[in-house]
Design brief:
The complex is a heterodimer. The relative contact order of chain A is 0.25. Chain A has five helices and six strands. Chain A has helices at 11-14, 21-36, 87-95, 115-118, 123-139; strands at residues 2-8, 40-45, 53-58, 61-66, 76-83, 107-111. In chain A, β3 and β4 (61-66) form a beta hairpin. Chain A is of the alpha+beta class. Chain A is 36% helix and 27% strand. Chain B is 73% helix and 0% strand. Chain B has a domain at 1-109. Chain B has helices at residues 2-29, 32-53, 59-86, 92-107, 111-122, 129-139, 145-151, 156-173, 182-204, 213-231, 236-249, 275-290, 297-310, 319-332, 336-350, 352-361, 372-383, 387-400, 404-415. The chains are: A alpha+beta, B mainly alpha. At the A-B interface, α3 and α5 of A face α1, α10, α12 and α19 of B.
Chain lengths: 140, 419
């Protein structure tokens, strides 16, 4: 299964405080372990939300909101995309991650939707697509 | 509940460590079966101790130490037995110490090399291909016997026996568990790549509604490929195979309709292709080519897959490039099916007449009952405006296929040719 692993922001990360050499080193080692195990597909660190923007939707309306954003602990400071066997494996990997922040911090693991999860919900659209492709193939 | 939960957590950590653990132990005790037993012993000890004191900081080293203690205990017991039976008096102490020291020294060897050694051992050509696949999934992938059985649509007893026999065969062969060198290395590497691709294709062949463990084989093979690519960064065909698997897997979600019927590549909804895997695949392909391996069989197949992956719309497909790649693949990996695909590619690149010429050159004997051959001829004839001849070919294809859906498709195309 594919999971997205979210490193939550802290006051430090939002202030743009850069990690220490020791942490960078430890994180580099951890990333290498992930790559060696064939687990890591992608990952990056994110700049503070002061450099980000939000677009708010309300019906046809679109409003652009400049960062920084409040609720620091709900913001994301970095992410990975991993391919793991199950949630237990993802948790085991996260547990061996060095603390990514100076103080207490959180990492969140969220499974990515897969085709099987959609079940019936996807069928009408797929059926339509399929009919279209069949039609095309048949009359080509 | 709490116990089940903590057991799962311990097992998850064990799964991460398992392959390296077995690899290190196998190198030391020179026996895959014994190495796996020792690793399992270490798991049992961990299941007992970790829920009480928490997962240790370095679980890999902890498990290795536990397994090592078991190995040494075993060796001592054997020595004691030998003492009783043979009544040798003097040099036993030194013998035993030498054995213990050898175990302790060997365990600190280079881990990557050991893991590679284990992969080469599990994929040893003395074993049948299906045994190699089962053993690789068991030892390196950490799959249970039950999971492997379900994945290969086999019974658990059959797979268990296959694994036991494979271990015995390896034991008798007296292997060193070292990574082979020189000419032997190339042959053995070919066997490793073959096993990984076999696992991938088994997963790729799975259809909707089947046990989910089957499609999961694709992910397992990709993972093995990624591990191998890290262990052998200078082997172009390793990167070539990885590229091929990543790009093929990028289409897993787009290749079947809701009723499970296959959707041909050119008709797939490309928005469903996994761009992350495509990027990874293209990167692996560039690596293979940069290493001078652009003409390897896997790299060429990956390059073919990449031509489709790069085209955002089917109409943008670079058929000339595909045709040229098939010309090269034909030299490296001759097969009538590749000749057929090559002819189709040429027909797309240079027109139906070019395709018909090449299709005419294919020795019919090998593909006499192969529906795609008359289907390809029918398509070229149809596009050339030779409708009556096309109709005959489509009808022949319909008569050859056993798949009802395909049959209906070919009959539909025959009907579209008029009378």
């Amino acid at each position: 299964m594919r999971v997205m692993v979210l490193v939550k922001a802290t006051e430090d990360s939002e202030a743009g405080r850069m990690p220490t050499t020791e942490l960078l080193e430890a994180m580099g080692k951890f990333n290498e372990e992930l790559v060696n195990a064939g687990v890591m597909l992608a990952g990056d660190g994110l700049k503070p939300s002061s450099q980000g923007k939000r677009v708010a939707f309300d019906g046809p309306g679109r409003t652009v909101i400049d960062g920084p954003f409040a609720e620091t602990r709900e913001l994301v400071a970095g992410f990975w995309v991993w391919e793991v066997k199950d949630m237990a494996e993802a948790v085991a990997w996260v547990k061996r991650c060095p603390n990514p922040m100076f103080g207490p911090s959180e990492i969140e693991i969220r499974p990515v939707y897969e085709m099987a999860d959609f079940g019936e919900a996807l069928t009408p659209e797929l059926a339509e697509l399929h009919d279209r492709t069949r039609e095309k193939a048949g009359t080509r | 509940m709490a116990t089940a939960e903590s057991h799962r957590a311990v097992e998850a950590v064990f799964r991460i460590e398992q392959a390296r653990l077995i690899a290190g132990l196998a190198r030391t005790v020179r026996d895959v079966g014994l190495a796996e037993e020792l690793a399992q012993d270490a798991l049992v000890i961990a299941l007992n101790e970790w829920p009480k004191g928490g997962v240790p900081l370095n679980p890999g080293a902890w498990l290795m130490a536990a397994a090592k203690r078991r190995a040494i205990d075993g060796l001592r017991r054997e020595t004691m037995l030998a003492k009783k039976h043979a009544e040798i008096a003097r040099d036993r102490e030194t013998e035993r110490d030498a054995g213990v020291e050898a175990i302790e020294a060997a365990i600190d060897d280079d881990i990557g090399d050991e893991l590679l050694g284990l992969i080469f051992t599990a994929c040893h050509p003395v074993l049948a291909a299906e045994s190699r696949a089962a053993l690789t999934l068991r030892l390196i992938g950490g799959l249970t016997t039950d999971e492997i059985a379900r994945a290969f649509l086999s019974s658990e007893a059959t797979v268990a026996q296959r694994i036991v026999r494979a271990k015995r065969t390896l034991g008798k062969a007296g292997l060193t568990f070292a990574v082979p060198r020189g000419k032997e290395r190339d042959e053995r590497l070919a066997s490793v790549l073959e096993v990984i691709y076999l696992i991938f294709n088994e997963g790729y062949a799975a259809t909707a509604g089947e046990d989910l463990i089957r499609p999961a084989l694709c992910a397992e093979a990709q993972r093995l490929g990624r591990i191998l690519a890290r262990l052998m960064p200078d082997e172009p065909e390793v990167s070539g195979l990885l590229a091929l698997m990543e790009i093929q897997a990028s289409r897993l979600n787009a290749r079947t309709g809701p009723d499970g019927s296959p959707i041909p590549l050119t008709e797939q909804n490309r928005a469903r292709w996994d761009q992350l895997l495509i990027r990874r695949g293209l990167a692996a392909l560039s690596r293979a080519e940069a290493l001078g391996g652009g003409s390897g069989a896997y790299a060429l197949q990956a390059a073919l897959a990449a031509c489709h992956a790069r085209a955002r719309k089917a109409e943008e497909t670079d058929w000339r490039r595909i045709a040229a790649l098939y010309d090269r693949l034909r030299d490296v990996m001759p097969s009538p099916v590749i000749d057929l695909n090559r002819a189709v590619a040429h027909s797309m690149a240079f027109g139906p007449e070019a395709g018909l010429t090449l299709l005419g050159e294919i020795a019919d004997a090998a593909l006499r009952n192969y529906a795609p051959l008359p289907a390809a001829k029918g398509d070229c004839l149809f596009r050339a405006g030779r409708l009556a001849e096309a109709k005959v070919e489509f009808e022949r294809a319909a008569g050859l296929t056993r798949n009802a859906r395909e049959k209906a498709f070919f009959l539909g195309r025959a009907a579209a040719c008029g009378t």
